[in-house]
Structure formats: C-alpha cells, structure tokens
Design goal:
heterodimer, A: 231 residues, mainly alpha, MetI-like fold, 10 helices, 77% helix, 0% strand, B: 261 residues, alpha/beta, D-Maltodextrin-Binding Protein, domain 2, five-stranded mixed sheet, three-stranded parallel sheet, 14 strands, globular, disordered N terminus
Chain lengths: 231, 261
C-alpha cells in the first residue's frame, strides 16, 4: 500500500467528490419532482395520458442507463454541434458539458423508477383517509398536497433511501463521458501515477461514506417532523 | 463461486510466492495497448495486430531469433500487467519519463514524435503565447500531455478520454476547444474528413515530453533489456527500421524525429 499520490491529487479528488455530490443533488431533486408527475400521469383516468406515461416508464426501465447516457451524449450532443447557432451560441458552455447530459439521463431514469414506486405508495394509502379529507371539504389538489403525497412519501422513506443510494452508485457512469466525478478523478490519478489499486480503494470508501450520509439524512427525516401530516 | 475462489487463490499466490523464472524457450510476450492507436497499432478486420509497433516487434524478434507473442492489455493497466508477469515487454508508444522510470526500465528509444495542439481554425489559437489559457483541452488519459498541461496551464479544464478516437470525436463536436496529442495522431486526424477546418501547431520540446518512446521491461529483467536495445539498434542499422517507418509515416521517427533524407 502506497498513498504518496494522495496529497498531490487531493484537489482533483475533492473536485470529483463535489461533482458526484452535485449529480446526486441535481438529479435526485428534479427526479423526485418528475417522478410525482409520472405517478400521477400513470394513474390518470385518461387512457391516452396513462398509457403515454406507461410507455415512458417501460422504455426508460427497459434500457441500460449507460446506453441512455451514450444516446444523449453522443447522439443529442453531436446533433447540437451541427447547429451553428447553438455551437457558437451563448448556451454552448453548458451544452458541451457532459455533466448536464449525465444529470438529464439520471433525472429521466429516476422519474421512471421512482414514479412507479410513488404510484404503488399512493395506491397503498387507505381510501378512507382520502374520503375523510373530502368530507372535510378539501378539493382534489388540496387533498393531494396535504394528505395523499405527505403520507405516501413518508411511508416510502426507507425505499427512497435505497433508491438514492442506487442513484449515487449510478453517478459513477459519468466518468465514461469524460466527466471528472469521483471515479473519474480516481481514474486520472491511477493513469498518471501508476498506482492502480489504492485510488480505487479510497473512492470505494468515500462512496461508502456517502451512502452512510444519505441513509442518515433519510433517517433524520423519518424521525423528524417533516412530512408528518398536520396535528 | 469456485472460479472466484480459484482466482483469489491465484492472485494471492502471485503476491506471496517468489516468481519462478520463465523457461528459456518460453515466448517473449509483447504487450500492446488494447485501444487502437493508428497507425502505431491497430487490429485488422481479420483480428491481427498491425501498424508500426507490431511490425517493429516482429522485426525485433526476428533479429533476436526469439519466439514472440503479442498480447493486448488495456492501456491503464499495462504497467501492473508487466509487473505481474502477464507480459514481458510494454511495446505501445510509452514515452520514457522520469516518473515511469521509477517503476519500469526502458530500452533505448525506438521512436520519437513531436507533440501537437489541434484546434478549430475558428478558435484562432496562438499556442506560443499562452494561447491555451482558459480553453477546455482534451487528452488521452495517462499520457505525458496531462503532466504538461498541469504544469503550464494548471487552471485549465482538462478532459481525459480513454482513447484518441474519443478525443477526436469530442474535438469535432466542439466539446473541447483543442486537443494535445502525438504528432502522428494529429496528422492522422487531419487526413480524415472530420479533421478539415482544424489547425495543428507543434509545441517546442519540453523535458516533460520525455526522451522518446522506449520498450518497457521489468527493472530486474536486465538481460531482456540489453537484448532488446541491441536488436533495436541492429534493425535501425540494417535498414529494416526505415522500411517499416516509410510504410506508415511521412517522416523519419527515429529519435530525434526528422524529415526523410
């Protein structure tokens, strides 16, 4: 074991860690918002709406994440580059950056997986609770906002914690499209210093610590007052 | 599961037991990076390794009257593969640098090429006057170019790719502003349809670029190192080298690189 590479490359590794955390935060937050939309869409009374969202879920869940990243990054990215007004336009610094393609893929993926999860959670809420809300004179939107969603999300917290950990592990795919996430940073260190195993061991431990962090945040929410229906 | 256990046993055996020297008639295994790096090494549709380095490796074996085998290893794991006796020689465009010499012993250099910067004409880069500042630069991972950028442009965003093809692709699609690469790779790119509209500038030599490309062997393999160095000099002297060189390049890549006389 030799860790002489650690200090000279600390900046790079921290940059990678920051990138990984940003990916989790961006795609987790946007993902859950979209997932609620997907769940509601799937439960829509309109046949067209529910089957459209059903198709979306099937397509996203039925293809490997890496393939989706490649399709967006190489496919969409090259299509953008062929348009001069985009290629030389003010948005190009963002559009050229692999980070946003990975983030977008993860958001779409989360929306599909978490959407199904939330749909099953919403189905599991006893109808009596919703009927009671209605008896109190709450409209559909108000019932959803005050009773249905908070109850669902709270019940789903343990499952969502697991899904967030899965999301964290999925972010490691970012390194395949030249995004310097935690694994990408470790790969650079490995390639430049020829210490092949130690950087991998280090990032494995950091990923474990991140998992621990995610689980303890969810644990706090579970024990706390957030998402607890009114008292 | 059993296979996993066997693999674990095998790896621990390698680390614990002293290495048993190979038999004298065992073939010398030349390790070539699995990622194609045309025209230095690439696989023909028939699955045979072709290019400057496989050809030169075959010529060296003939010179040494030795049995040889070419084995492909991923670039980022090639030094560990050498040290683990999976291969005997790294023969895949590895520049001789002080950092690598801590782990690997090199023969005399067998080729050297300039280092080039390629960028779209529209960028109008002036490389000589620190013109890369603030630019997003693409390079292949684990190359001397990364070290050079770290020293002279420490604040630049450097994007690292597994293969030169990926660097070319992202340069074409505008994801990077410029790439740093080997002069021969830059020439090859300039000859492709995608490479039109780009300009290539050669960087002045820098100690970080190393002293040419050598064959890497294990530091304790002194006999093989001497044999290889002698063979390299011999094929250079008897004209075989020039024949292989002309087959692939428009310049003489024997160090220091020069135009053909």
């Amino acid at each position: 074991m030799n860790f002489s590479w650690f200090l000279p490359n600390l900046g790079l590794l921290l940059q990678g860690l920051e990138c990984t955390i940003l990916l989790i935060a961006v795609s987790g937050t946007l993902g859950i918002v979209l997932a609620i939309g997907v769940a509601l869409g799937r439960m829509s009374r309109s046949r067209v709406v529910s089957s459209t969202f059903g198709l979306y879920t099937s397509v996203i869940r039925g293809t490997p994440l890496l393939v989706q990243i490649y399709i967006l990054y190489y496919g969409l990215g090259s299509a953008f580059a062929a348009l001069p007004w985009l290629r030389w336009g003010p948005l190009w610094p963002y559009l050229r950056n692999g980070f946003w393609y990975v983030a977008l893929t993860l958001v779409l993926s989360n929306a599909a997986y978490w959407g199904e999860l939330i749909r099953s959670g919403m189905r599991a809420i006893p109808p009596g609770e919703l009927e009671a809300a209605s008896a109190f004179g709450m409209g559909r939107i108000l019932t959803l906002r005050r009773i249905w969603l908070p109850r669902t999300l709270r019940n789903l917290l343990p499952a969502l914690a697991g899904e967030t950990v899965m999301l964290m592990k999925a972010t490691a795919l970012a390194s395949t499209v030249a995004v310097t996430d935690l694994l990408g940073a470790a790969d650079i260190v490995r390639a430049q210093t020829f210490h092949v195993y130690e950087p991998l061991l280090l990032v494995a431990i950091v990923y474990l610590l991140l998992t621990y962090g995610i689980e303890s945040v969810y644990g706090r929410v579970e024990r706390g007052k957030v998402l607890r229906p009114g008292r | 599961m059993k296979r996993l256990l066997l693999a674990l046993l095998a790896t621990s055996a390698v680390t614990v037991l002293p290495h048993i020297p190979a038999r004298a008639d065992a073939p010398i295994i030349f390790g070539i990076s699995a990622e194609p790096y045309a025209p230095f090494s690439y696989k023909s549709p028939a699955g045979v390794w072709e290019g400057f380095e496989p050809d030169l490796a075959r010529a060296l074996c003939e010179q040494m009257k030795a049995q040889c085998k070419i084995s492909e290893i991923a670039w980022d794991g090639i030094i560990p593969a050498l040290l683990a006796h999976k291969i005997d020689v790294i023969f895949t465009s590895m520049s001789i640098t002080a950092e690598r010499e801590k782990t690997v012993a090199f023969t005399i250099p067998y080729y050297d090429t300039p280092v080039d910067v390629t960028a779209p004409k529209a960028e109008g880069l002036d490389v000589a006057k620190g013109g890369l500042k603030g630019k997003v630069i693409g390079v292949q991972i684990g190359t001397i170019f990364v070290n050079w950028l770290k020293k002279y442009y420490p604040t630049n965003t450097v994007k690292t790719y597994d293969t030169q093809e990926e660097v070319n692709a992202d340069l074409t699609s505008g994801r990077i502003d410029a790439m740093l690469c080997d002069g021969i790779a830059a020439d090859a790119f300039a000859k492709t349809p995608a490479g039109q509209g780009f300009v290539t500038t050669t960087l002045p030599h820098d100690p970080l670029f190393g002293n040419g490309v050598g064959a890497g062997v294990r530091p304790d393999d002194t006999a093989l190192k001497a044999k290889l160095s002698a063979a390299i000099q011999a094929v250079r002297d008897n004209g075989t080298y020039a024949k292989i060189d002309r087959k692939y390049f428009s310049i003489d890549v024997w160090p220091p690189p020069a135009d053909f006389k």
